[in-house]
Design goal:
The protein is mainly α and 402 residues long. It has 18 helices and no strands. Helix 6 runs antiparallel to helix 7 and helix 8 packs parallel to helix 11. The longest helix is centred in the C-terminal third of the chain and has 28 residues. The N and C termini lie far apart (63 Å).
């Protein structure tokens, strides 16, 4: 078959932006349409494409690159100070609620692994939220800062939890903690070494001279970082996605203003990711989506709104603490539903869960379907509230907590 299946996947990825451009008034995220297209063209409906070895390999790389770009989105300057304390309280509440919801669903006999479900509910789609907040002119406002900070904390926590408790490489939780500490120490060493190397005039001049030539040295070094940390993570018994996520975070720490000083650098990385690898992952996820399991019985179908409500409870309810930052009720509600918006990490979690038999195909399909609905319904609910609260307010109402 050669590249036949890959060609179909790439055609779908190229067609999605055009389809979205036909209905500009419908703010439908691209990954949603890519997954839906994969479902339609895959074995579940038309059976025109199958995930062969080539597509599978690129899909795995796309998954890692998606987590790398998610790590790159994290602004560590936000994860400190008064706002960070509020976010920390909200995160603790989210993790506690995720545990309660997971174990409650387990006691009801609805899920196989309460820990996996709880982990899936903690994350937020940071990459989808930033464009939404920018469109609403909310990034620089307290509601935008708190939402981005909360989403970043949720993503970090979810990746760590997934790495600690779910991996194809089995080991005890205690040893995993020690291995995770070892990985953290290695990461700190890379950050410190990179920052010191960045002070070298010769190295800085060489990077500038080679950055936009055929050498594309910044991109090559970034690929070494991503693949290297992914390999280290796997050798330590974790999933490769943890290493990829850390690589993005390391790059953001080492060069926090790279998007301003070297704007083409991030554009190139996004071109590789969102232009090639990441769409392959989402389309392939749709191809592998078990539509028959979702519609096999009414009970499975009813779990979709149940999981959607769980997302809103776990990530939305803790946003109530943001009222201490002076947010209006409308902004608190908008922040809550945006934090409950989650799809990429749900797909990642269910993909790993299916490999480990930690989740049944029916529940995986229902959870992904809930994620699909969340990225459609929740932003549409939040946008009018953000736009309504855009009017100027009194300066003292924008003060942050001490």
């Amino acid at each position: 078959m050669g590249y036949d299946n890959l060609l179909i996947v790439l055609v779908v990825a190229a067609a999605v932006p055009f389809l979205l451009a036909l209905v500009p008034r419908v703010p439908l995220p691209g990954p949603v349409l890519e997954i839906v297209a994969g479902i339609v063209l895959g074995p579940a409906v038309l059976n025109l494409v199958r995930p062969d070895a080539t597509v599978q390999a690129l899909s795995v790389i796309g998954l890692s690159f998606l987590l790398f770009l998610a790590g790159l989105e994290i602004d560590f300057q936000l994860l400190r100070g008064p706002l960070a304390r509020l976010v920390a309280v909200g995160l603790v509440a989210s993790i506690a609620l995720a545990g309660i919801v997971g174990w409650g669903l387990d006691l009801a006999g609805l899920v196989e692994s309460p820990l996996l479900i709880g982990t899936a509910l903690v994350a937020t789609s940071l990459g989808l939220l930033v464009p939404i907040l920018k469109d609403a002119d909310a990034v620089g406002r307290p509601v935008g800062q708190l939402t981005i900070c909360g989403a970043s904390a949720g993503d970090i926590s979810a990746v760590v939890l997934l790495s600690l408790f779910f991996s194809e490489h089995s080991s005890s939780p205690g040893s995993r903690v020690l291995l995770l500490i070892s990985l953290a120490c290695l990461t700190a060493l890379i950050v410190v070494t990179s920052m010191r190397a960045g002070r070298s005039m010769w190295l800085s001049r060489t990077l500038v001279n080679l950055a936009d030539t055929s050498a594309q040295i910044r991109i090559r070094l970034t690929m070494v970082l991503v693949v290297g940390l992914s390999a280290v993570a796997m050798h330590l018994g974790f999933e490769a996605v943890l290493g990829a996520f850390i690589a993005g975070a390391v790059l953001r720490l080492v060069a926090p203003d790279a998007d301003r000083k070297h704007p083409q650098f991030h554009v190139k990385l996004q071109g590789i990711g969102y232009g090639f690898l990441v769409p392959i992952f989402f389309v392939t996820s749709g191809i592998q989506f078990d539509l028959k399991a979702l519609f096999a019985d009414t009970a499975t179908l009813l779990r979709v709104p149940l999981f959607l409500a769980a997302l809103l409870l776990v990530r939305g309810l803790p946003a109530l603490v943001y009222r201490r930052a002076g947010l209006s009720p409308a902004e608190v509600f908008a922040s809550g539903v945006l934090q409950a918006t989650s799809l990429p990490f749900i797909v990642v979690t269910t993909t790993i869960g299916l490999k480990l038999d930690a989740i049944q195909p029916a529940n995986a399909a229902a959870l992904v379907a809930a994620g699909l609905l969340s990225v459609i319904v929740f932003p549409l609910t939040a946008l009018p509230l953000l736009n309504r609260s855009r009017e100027p307010v009194k300066p003292d109402s924008q003060e942050r907590p001490d």
